[in-house]
Design goal:
The longest helix has 48 residues. The protein is rod-shaped, with a radius of gyration of 25 Å. Helix 1 runs antiparallel to helix 2. The chain is mainly α. The chain starts with 13 loop residues before the first helix and ends in a 13-residue tail after the last helix. One of its GO terms (cellular component) is nucleus.
Length: 114
């Protein structure tokens, strides 16, 4: 994925596609970081549950709230990622359409001389 450009993007879009890829990568890294934290929270919740100690079970309430907040954050990151990707794809598509209209050899209407 790194260093690749989207198909259909000309040389002028290379810089833009690199920005898009960097944004995607940043979002995926952010989501993965939260998911890694969730794995640690789940492990701690399981250990507390298995211990059966009242203090540990009480601590699980806060840990589960934190886990739920993290799940919301991951969902938000993916929603933002999706919106950014769609916006980028639409902009790329519009750029290709406008470039196609000006290509040499493309039929254009000429005003009638008379």
């Amino acid at each position: 994925m790194e260093g690749e450009s989207f198909s259909g993007i000309g040389n002028g879009g290379q810089l833009e596609s690199n920005k898009v890829l960097q944004g995607l990568q940043k979002s995926f890294v952010q989501a993965q970081s939260i998911l890694d934290q969730n794995r640690l929270l789940i492990n701690e919740i399981n250990q507390n549950h298995e211990s059966g100690a009242a203090g540990n079970l009480g601590r699980n309430v806060g840990l589960i709230r934190e886990l739920n907040d993290n799940i919301r954050r991951v969902a938000d990151v993916y929603a933002d990622l999706s919106a950014s990707f769609v916006k980028s794809a639409e902009a790329s598509s519009e750029g290709e359409s406008s470039r196609a209209a000006g290509r040499p050899g493309h039929k254009r209407n000429r005003p009638l001389q008379g």
